[in-house]
């Protein structure tokens, strides 16, 4: 009997058990929404005052072509390598390694930041004190690890339910808080000058950089060429309404308190519903945090396995036996343990939350820039998308420049990736034995 082509087998497998547009939308929203809805509205307000609203508007506007470009790349070349795979196709393997490292090792920085933010809300609501925050964060990371071990399909359905509940809650929060907005809270609009808006945008990139995480899950869709663009566009609309709405009411309703709190969602809910809303804010924070952590661990696990098969990461710790078409357990375990270690480092005072957020933003902005550059080469016949990618490159490069000293993080990772690629002990690629979702990385 003739052997069936690998691509045909992969497509049939996806038709039977892949993600649909609904679960894909939930994973997109979960990856992008998360901590931005919990604390970054306040962090940006502390940096740029009411002018932080401009930073949010610029970023969500830029994120539309960025999201659409990544959806088009994922639909055309669905595999676990995500942006790194696209960079390899466009520019070669030498540049793909650093891009893969930027995302893979940014996750153990960003996941702890998200989990710690959720932990702050839960600890404040329960009156447990700050010592409970890292414990809660570790529990969130562990729960996301367990959900990913069960499988992405079940995880996506769970996230679909959570996103529906949370989007409704945040929409109610915005509507109720909107009645308490005051024009006086928007003056002076730029207390720290125009440059502060750029600095805030660089920090907020963490909040809108989840689109490339979903690109690593493109091969998990039943029909990526149809469902991935649909899920991306719907997710962008939901995220835009919620982020801009929360940014406006945080400044307009809280006034000077907007930049002085780490739990703005709690204050907004208390203003509308009283102190009884604190537990609600805590539960919402934990669910939002779980959504982001779940999506990022899923994307990083598949990228790590793809990079391991390609020889861009140590194969022994990222690629397990007979994992084709299943859960990449080794890679998932590595990134989960690394994330847990960073949570412990924060608890011990070796690093703070703002440093994690800024370092993650620098890495993700670098990944986004690389993906957009690859799109200008790969999306033949899609002139409007290639133009959008080129224009977005300029905007993202500007945002990346505002990351300032934190650019050292992607720079160090790029050097490390290049050094590993040049190492004599580096394993050779195993493209012939790679699983279908990893082809092309």
Offer a few descriptive terms:
mainly alpha; Amino acid/polyamine transporter I; single chain; 441 residues; globular; disordered N terminus
The total beta strand count reads: 0
Determine the fraction of residues in helical runs and give it as a percent range: over 70%
Structural class: mainly alpha
Oligomer: single chain
Mind telling me the C-alpha Rg? 21 Å
When the domains are counted, the total is: 1
CATH architecture: Up-down Bundle
CATH topology: Amino acid/polyamine transporter I
Distance between the termini: 30 Å
Element order: H for helix, E for strand: HHHHHHHHHHHHHHHHHH
CATH superfamily: Amino acid/polyamine transporter I
- CATH C-level class: Mainly Alpha
Q: Largest sheet, described in full?
A: none
Our estimate of the beta-strand percent is under 5%
Mean pLDDT: 80
Shape: globular
So how many helices? Answer: 18
Low-confidence stretches: 1-17, 431-441
Account of the protein in words:
By secondary structure, this protein is mostly helical. It has one domain: Amino acid/polyamine transporter I (Up-down Bundle). It is built from 18 helices and no strands. The protein has helices at 6-17, 21-32, 40-48, 52-76, 82-91, 93-126, 133-150, 152-178, 195-204, 211-215, 224-254, 264-273, 278-310, 315-318, 329-347, 353-378, 383-401, 408-422. Helix 12 packs antiparallel against helix 13. The relative contact order is 0.21.
Put the structure in a nutshell:
The protein is mainly alpha-helical and 441 residues long.
Task: List the topology elements.
Blueprint: H1 6-17, H2 21-32, H3 40-48, H4 52-76, H5 82-91, H6 93-126, H7 133-150, H8 152-178, H9 195-204, H10 211-215, H11 224-254, H12 264-273, H13 278-310, H14 315-318, H15 329-347, H16 353-378, H17 383-401, H18 408-422
């Amino acid at each position: 009997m003739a052997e069936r082509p690998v691509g045909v087998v992969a497509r049939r497998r996806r038709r039977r058990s892949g993600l649909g547009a609904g679960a894909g939308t939930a994973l997109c929203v979960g990856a992008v929404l998360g901590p931005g809805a919990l604390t970054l509205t306040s962090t940006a307000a502390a940096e740029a005052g009411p002018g932080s609203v401009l930073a949010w508007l610029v970023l969500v506007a830029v994120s539309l072509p960025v999201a659409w470009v990544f959806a088009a790349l994922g639909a055309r070349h669905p595999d676990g390598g995500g942006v790194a795979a696209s960079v390899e196709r466009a520019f070669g393997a030498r540049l793909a390694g650093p891009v893969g490292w930027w995302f893979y090792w940014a996750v153990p920085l960003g996941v702890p930041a998200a989990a710690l933010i959720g932990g702050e809300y839960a600890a404040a609501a329960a009156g447990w004190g700050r010592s409970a925050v890292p414990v809660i964060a570790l529990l969130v990371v562990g729960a996301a690890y367990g959900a990913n071990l069960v499988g992405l399909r079940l995880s996506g359905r769970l996230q679909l339910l959570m996103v529906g509940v949370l989007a409704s809650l945040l929409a109610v929060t915005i509507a109720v808080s909107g009645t308490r907005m005051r024009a006086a809270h928007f003056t002076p609009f730029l207390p720290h000058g125009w440059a502060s808006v750029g600095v805030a945008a660089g920090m907020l990139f963490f909040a809108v950089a989840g689109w490339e995480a979903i690109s690593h899950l493109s091969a998990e869709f039943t029909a990526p060429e149809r469902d991935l663009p649909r899920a991306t566009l719907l997710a962008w609309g939901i995220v835009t309404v919620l982020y801009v709405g929360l940014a406006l009411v945080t400044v307009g309703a809280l006034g000077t308190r907007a930049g002085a709190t780490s739990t703005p969602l709690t204050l907004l809910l208390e203003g509308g519903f009283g102190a009884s809303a604190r537990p609600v804010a805590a539960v919402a924070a934990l669910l939002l945090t779980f959504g982001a952590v779940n999506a990022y661990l899923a994307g990083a696990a598949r990228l790590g396995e793809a990079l391991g098969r390609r020889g861009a990461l140590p194969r022994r710790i990222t690629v397990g036996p007979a994992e084709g078409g299943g859960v990449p357990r080794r890679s998932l375990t590595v990134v989960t343990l690394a994330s847990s270690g960073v949570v412990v480092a924060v608890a011990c005072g070796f690093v703070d939350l703002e440093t994690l957020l800024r370092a993650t933003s620098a890495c993700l902005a670098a990944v986004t820039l690389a993906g957009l550059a690859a799109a200008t080469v790969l999306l033949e016949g899609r002139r409007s998308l290639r133009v959008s990618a080129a224009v977005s490159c300029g905007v993202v490069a500007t945002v990346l420049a505002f990351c300032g000293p934190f650019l050292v993080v992607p720079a160090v990772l790029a050097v490390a990736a290049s050094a590993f690629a040049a190492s004599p002990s580096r394993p050779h690629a195993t493209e012939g034995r790679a699983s279908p979702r990893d082809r092309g990385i």
